[in-house]
Design a protein that fits this description.
With 587 residues, the chain is an alpha/beta fold. The protein is built from 21 helices and 16 strands. Helix 2 links the parallel strand 9 and strand 10.
Length: 587
């Protein structure tokens, strides 16, 4: 045994002394060799530019592919984050760079010499389309444990990625086009890193998850990936797209003294002359309503007629459209956490700081919750609201005899419209399509239900984003980054949490490899994790014990998926028009 360990260490040290070089269609790329926390070697190729810098006249335009270099590119360090404000945690300031369109490739050490055709996972980070970066997520544990290749990408955020004039001057969705170009780069080049171009999984969390949905709903994505993993976000999430892009574009222009009176073309010309950091700093907030500011991110995807053909709720509810874009040819896994709306605390705190308001406490007033908060959420999700719809929502979330609103009811309202319902409806649509067309592709769903013990002061619920720690193997680098970002001291995870993380990585990489996650959980589960299909809608409750359940959040999903669309339909019939006449109805 001792001899084996010694030879293993010698092999690892030998690898560490040799820099890996890849000769890809893009060009010759030299990376580094590193080891995971358990001494498993892997290669990292960092900061590879996949697009021409989107600066100057290229601002507010689709990205152009980077031609590569004639010399060997030293891929030793991450590229800068894309420009962003720190709205999500309420901290001021702008960080990042406008020239930020890079990606990173992580491979098992053997992928360049011995094992070819490794499964590939492309990771899209979250952050509400206004924040986030690739380098916060350390995929070394996934690469080492699952023997897969992981690619992490960056895309333009906020106004630089999503400002839209709702016409041909600036259609918007440039961040989605960035992601798409990165996927094309992966398809063309990943075989040179030992990746299987016919086994690519697109994966993301929050806005990254919504991005996965947007990519899957775009017909130009056919063949670029073969499976999707969506964690806590969909294209139809209330915060994931806006119907007010022109209003926000003009509002931003006004703030930086670019006139919109002479049309959108002159306005965009002016906006291209504004320093990128100044433009980003001015992008939040865009109004004076703390409720809206806590639930909407302004510069996010919009219906452009090309990448996003129509209201995402309409697209997801249209089997003919889903068939047209080829959704039936993908395996799909979706997930949520048990308290998705827990993010409300951070968002409300940030809004209160900005507006010197008291949203965090006033939303627990019954009158404010019913008359202000619910209608705002309905407007974001459906584009309309009515007293009947408001009453239906309050009936589900509030006890009839209560004068105050429990904060959990507020969080559930926000979390259901933002994550739970859109994710469930995406899973339903995918399962129904693949079953009807008998393509053999599967839908899986899980609900993450474990409170991290290592975060001091963590509440008694599993909040939006808690699952990410386990997705990435509870890596020390990621825990340290979060401790620094939030100014807290994170303790060491216990053994049960390390085992849970190992299972999480296993189910994700098994799904990426085979389209079936069961190998990773079958032993502890003592049964098969069934695919998500009607009528049972079975899902895996992921915690240290694991169990299979049916119908996630049944009554709350039924409210948003059936009851509210019917009331909206009645409202539209009553008035023969809506604030958004092009909006089709689900149900």
């Amino acid at each position: 045994m001792a001899v084996t360990v010694v030879f293993g260490l010698l092999f690892t040290l030998q690898l560490l002394n040799a820099e890996p070089i890849v000769d890809a269609p893009w060009g010759v790329i030299e990376g580094t060799t590193n080891v995971t926390e358990d001494w498993t070697p892997y290669h990292a190729f960092l900061g590879i530019p996949y697009a021409v810098p989107p600066i100057g006249a290229k601002r507010f335009k689709r990205p152009l592919p980077h031609p590569g270099f004639k010399h060997t590119f030293k891929a030793y360090s991450y590229g800068p984050a894309c420009l962003q404000t720190h709205k999500l945690n309420g901290v001021g300031g702008v960080t990042g760079d406008e020239d930020c369109l890079t990606l990173n490739v992580f491979t098992p050490a053997a992928s360049l010499t011995e094992i070819k055709n490794n499964p590939v996972i492309v990771w899209i980070h979250g952050g509400g389309f206004v924040a986030g970066d690739a380098f916060t997520y350390d995929p070394s544990s996934i690469v080492g444990t699952g023997q897969v290749i992981v690619v992490t990408i960056q895309y333009r955020l906020g106004p630089l990625g999503f400002l839209s004039t709702n016409d041909d001057v600036s259609r918007g969705n440039y961040g989605l086009w960035d992601q798409h170009l990165a996927l094309e780069w992966v398809k063309k080049n990943i075989a040179s890193f030992g990746g299987d171009i016919n086994n690519i999984t697109l994966m993301g969390e929050s806005a990254g998850s919504a991005s996965v949905a947007f990519q899957a709903l775009y017909s130009g994505s056919k063949g670029l990936f073969h499976r999707t993993i969506m964690q806590s976000g969909s294209a139809s999430s209330a915060w994931a797209y806006t119907r007010n892009s022109l209003i926000y574009a003009k509002g931003l222009a006004h703030k930086v003294k670019c006139s919109s009176q002479n049309g959108t073309a002159s306005m965009i010309t002016c906006l291209r002359t504004i320093p990128a950091r100044k433009l980003t700093a001015a992008s939040w907030p865009m109004g004076n309503e703390p409720v809206t500011a806590s639930a909407e991110f302004y510069f996010v995807p919009t219906i452009d007629g090309t990448f996003v053909k129509n209201d995402p709720r309409v697209l997801i509810d249209s089997p003919s459209y889903l068939k047209q874009v080829g959704l039936q040819n993908l395996d799909c896994m979706v997930s949520v956490v048990t308290n998705e709306g827990g993010i409300f605390n951070d968002l409300a705190t940030a809004a209160d700081k900005q507006f010197h308001s008291s949203l965090s406490s006033s939303v627990q007033n019954r009158g404010f919750y019913i008359n202000t908060f619910i209608p705002e959420i309905l407007e974001l999700y459906f584009g309309a609201s009515s007293p009947d719809m408001t009453q239906a929502v309050s009936k589900v979330y509030l006890p009839s005899n209560s004068h105050t609103v429990d904060l959990q009811a507020v969080m559930n309202t926000l979390g259901d419209a933002g994550m739970v319902v859109p994710m469930t409806l995406f899973a339903r649509a995918h399962a129904k399509l693949t079953n009807n067309l008998k393509t053999g592709k599967k839908t899986y769903m899980y609900v993450f239900d474990h409170i991290p013990s290592f975060i001091p002061g963590h509440g008694k619920e599993v909040d939006h984003g808690d699952d990410i720690y386990y997705t990435f193997g509870l890596s020390k680098a990621m825990l340290d980054a979060n401790a620094k970002a939030y100014g807290i001291s994170i303790s060491v995870p216990d053994q049960s949490e390390k085992e849970l993380s190992h299972k999480m990585m296993g189910l994700l990489t098994d799904f990426a490899r085979y389209g079936d996650p069961n190998n990773a959980v079958r032993f502890g589960l003592k049964q098969t994790w069934p695919a998500f299909t009607e009528p049972g809608e079975q899902y895996l409750l992921v915690n240290t014990t694991m169990s299979v359940k049916s119908h996630p959040f049944k009554d709350r999903v039924s409210l948003w998926a059936l009851q509210l669309p019917r009331l909206l339909h009645a409202l539209q019939n009553q008035h023969h028009t809506t604030k958004n006449p092009k909006l089709s109805i689900i149900g």
